Give the backbone structure.
Amino acid sequence: MTDTIFAKIVSGEIPARKIYENEHVIAIMDLSQVTKGHTLVITKKPVRNIFDYDEELASNVFAVIPRIAKAIKNHNPDVKGLNILMNNEAVASQTIFHSHIHLLPRYGENDGFGLKWEDHSNEYTPEELDRIKEKLIKSLEGLK
């Protein structure tokens, strides 16, 4: 984990366009700039992704997200909204296995970024949804 590009940015080995830093995170401009102002919030602790977070790390990381999001929106009057995206594991499009959260300012429907949502509600009976719900509740209880 210490050899990822993000670990090298956190350590100062590789320069980045840093916009924020505290003892838990560093926020930098993403090189890809999917949309203008695209920012990454990277954990200083070298964890792979959300599955490695404990409550303390989550609290420390997610506490800064609103502040950075507001700065992104306030710096440019053309920002109409913001997507907050975190890819966890390769199947979910994670390509750098050091935890990071994308803040993507949105300027309109054709700004270069999009998500596809499909409604699969007709594929589940109420009984199937209840079974899934119960399994999730038991799984949560096991994590206490």
The two ends are 27 Å apart (CA to CA). The longest strand covers residues 100-106. The chain has a mean pLDDT of 95. The first helix runs from residue 5 to 11.
